[in-house]
């Protein structure tokens, strides 16, 4: 009975976490408010809101890493990645149909603003996931040609928007492209999250790390779905 209750608790936690992630994927940060800057005021406002969204995304991934349950992480990332690429594909369709250029004026139409923000935010979020859980992501990504094409388009789009030109998030697109093999790796490329960690005196191996677990510690990775 206790085991059943624990299982239900895990399932409930999983559902709640997935619901939170989907809110992150689907909620845009369209630029609104007083226009104050001189170049593209709407874009400058959006950049500030983008910073807020990035903090929310990174917090979600921190919580995911702290689950310390590789099977739950696989379940969450499986569902999340499918949702992320569906949003990315739908947003690309909206933007290309309206001939929105990534280096053009920030869109004013609400539907186009949402599509723009979905592309920028979900591409960046996928970069975070790739770098923190590379082993899991490669299982799903490497054999999915549609995802490969979508993220190549997303990276190209984001690189032209100006959103990633400066600031703490500027390296994410390049690091993601190198980790995925989309672009050639720099001679000094290193994924900063591919490390073993020690927390509270308990040694555990980053589930996303390609490195072997330390001696005496073993992780049994579930097989990816067929």
From TrEMBL:
<feature type="compositionally biased region" description="Pro residues">
    <location>
        <begin position="210"/>
        <end position="226"/>
    </location>
</feature>
<dbReference type="Pfam" id="PF15002">
    <property type="entry name" value="ERK-JNK_inhib"/>
</dbReference>
<feature type="region of interest" description="Disordered">
    <location>
        <begin position="202"/>
        <end position="226"/>
    </location>
</feature>
<protein>
    <submittedName>
        <fullName>Coiled-coil domain containing 134</fullName>
    </submittedName>
</protein>
<dbReference type="InterPro" id="IPR026321">
    <property type="entry name" value="CC134"/>
</dbReference>
């Amino acid at each position: 009975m206790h085991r059943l209750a624990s299982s239900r608790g895990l399932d409930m936690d999983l559902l709640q976490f997935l619901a939170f992630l989907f809110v992150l994927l689907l909620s845009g940060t369209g630029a609104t408010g007083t226009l104050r800057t001189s170049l593209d005021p709407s874009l400058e406002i959006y950049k500030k809101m983008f910073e807020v969204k990035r903090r929310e995304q990174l917090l979600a991934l921190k919580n995911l890493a702290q689950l310390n349950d590789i099977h739950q992480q696989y379940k969450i990332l499986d569902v999340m990645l499918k949702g992320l690429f569906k949003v990315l594909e739908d947003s690309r369709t909206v933007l290309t149909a309206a001939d929105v250029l990534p280096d053009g004026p920030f869109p004013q139409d609400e539907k186009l603003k949402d599509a723009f923000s979905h592309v920028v935010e979900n591409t960046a979020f996928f970069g975070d996931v790739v770098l923190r859980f590379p082993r899991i992501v490669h299982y799903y990504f490497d054999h999915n040609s549609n995802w490969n094409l979508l993220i190549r388009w997303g990276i190209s789009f984001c690189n032209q928007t100006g959103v990633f030109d400066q600031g703490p998030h500027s390296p994410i697109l390049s690091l993601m492209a190198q980790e995925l093999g989309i672009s050639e790796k720099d001679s000094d490329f290193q994924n900063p999250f591919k490390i073993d960690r020690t927390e509270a005196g308990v040694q555990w191996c980053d589930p996303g790390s390609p490195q072997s677990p330390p001696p005496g510690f073993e992780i049994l990775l579930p097989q990816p779905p067929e």
